[in-house]
């Protein structure tokens, strides 16, 4: 891993943050997770815009201008490629387009100060970047699809600020814990009104009669960067696209379901709970959108 703290490269084993840091104490931080194609950060501007919106939402003044954040993302990626001798070789079942690519986690905490919830106590916001080998689903997950379970918000708590990407992620941690206990890849959360909102770390789409539906941004979900790319691709493909809040039954009865996120791109969900989705195999619309997504990412990788 390549780690930078406040612009300084730090060896990973010495990359530590204070126990007084509010990111650690209260989840008082914002973050982004980017990925590369061909060593370039995909949708970098969108991720930095979302970081700025998340920070504004929680009243955190970003200590660096956007250009410096953008340059630091490029710098840690460059420092982490090509793979060093201590890096594990790529998994034999990795999707070929992910081999050698990087994830960048960019975290800004409000910093540390006297103990206490009051954000005015924080003095020194910290900017932390990590560049790591990309962790993404294996090729088989794209070919066969994955399982998901539906988890009620009442069971795991409500995400604090669903529209901001903050470090306060406990509700999603607990939702994913339930999914993993059930042998599923992802947890889809249902809000108190009984509508499906998103995955623990993904957005969700369903396909019914060829039309594509995803919950709207005002449903209390993270505005996924991949979600926006996929909505645009679906419209370009001439598909009917709806932003509407589905009930769990609509997911259970859908022809196709898929997840979107930065690392996963478009990942078919072929089991919901213990029942198959549609035919039980990745559907036609999901595969069409993923082909188009791959073409877009490949073009980006070529520059
Ligand atoms: N929803 C939540 C709660 C997330 O944490 C994430 C990303 O990790 C997403 C959706 C997907 O967002 P993106 O496509 O920007 O990675």
Automatic annotation (TrEMBL):
Keywords: Aminotransferase, Pyridoxal phosphate, Transferase. Pathway: Amino-acid biosynthesis; L-isoleucine biosynthesis; L-isoleucine from 2-oxobutanoate: step 4/4; Amino-acid biosynthesis; L-valine biosynthesis; L-valine from pyruvate: step 4/4; Amino-acid biosynthesis; L-leucine biosynthesis; L-leucine from 3-methyl-2-oxobutanoate: step 4/4. PROSITE patterns: AA_TRANSFER_CLASS_4. Its EC number is 2.6.1.42. GO terms for molecular function: transaminase activity. Pfam families: Aminotran_4. It catalyses: L-valine + 2-oxoglutarate = 3-methyl-2-oxobutanoate + L-glutamate; L-isoleucine + 2-oxoglutarate = (S)-3-methyl-2-oxopentanoate + L-glutamate; L-leucine + 2-oxoglutarate = 4-methyl-2-oxopentanoate + L-glutamate. Its cofactor is pyridoxal 5'-phosphate. Belongs to the class-IV pyridoxal-phosphate-dependent aminotransferase family. This is branched-chain-amino-acid transaminase.
């Amino acid at each position: 891993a390549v780690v930078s703290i406040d612009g300084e490269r730090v060896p990973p084993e010495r990359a530590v943050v204070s126990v007084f840091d509010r990111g650690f104490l209260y989840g008082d931080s914002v973050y982004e997770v980017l990925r590369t194609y061909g060593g370039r950060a995909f949708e970098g501007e969108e991720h930095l815009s979302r970081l700025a919106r998340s920070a504004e939402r929680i009243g955190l003044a970003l200590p660096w201008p956007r250009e410096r954040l953008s340059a630091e993302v490029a710098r840690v990626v460059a420092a982490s490629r090509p793979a060093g001798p201590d890096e594990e070789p790529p998994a034999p079942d990795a999707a070929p387009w992910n081999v050698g690519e990087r994830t960048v986690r960019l975290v800004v905490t409000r910093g540390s100060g006297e103990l206490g919830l009051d954000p005015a106590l924080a003095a020194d916001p910290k900017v932390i970047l990590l560049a790591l080998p990309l962790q993404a689903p294996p090729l088989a997950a794209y070919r066969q699809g994955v399982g998901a379970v539906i988890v009620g918000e009442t069971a795991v708590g409500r995400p604090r600020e669903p529209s901001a990407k903050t470090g306060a992620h406990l509700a999603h941690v607990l939702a994913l814990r339930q999914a993993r206990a059930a042998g599923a890849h992802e947890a889809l959360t249902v809000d108190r009104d009984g509508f499906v909102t998103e995955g623990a770390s993904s957005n969700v789409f369903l396909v019914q009669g060829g039309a594509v539906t995803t919950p709207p941004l005002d449903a209390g979900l993270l505005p996924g960067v991949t979600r926006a790319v996929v909505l645009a691709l679906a419209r370009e493909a001439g598909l009917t696209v709806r932003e509407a809040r589905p009930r769990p039954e609509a997911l259970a009865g859908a022809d196709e379901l898929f997840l979107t996120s930065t690392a996963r791109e478009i990942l078919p969900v072929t089991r919901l709970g213990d029942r198959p989705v549609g035919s039980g195999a990745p559907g036609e619309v999901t595969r069409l959108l993923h082909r188009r997504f791959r073409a877009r990412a490949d073009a980006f990788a070529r520059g």
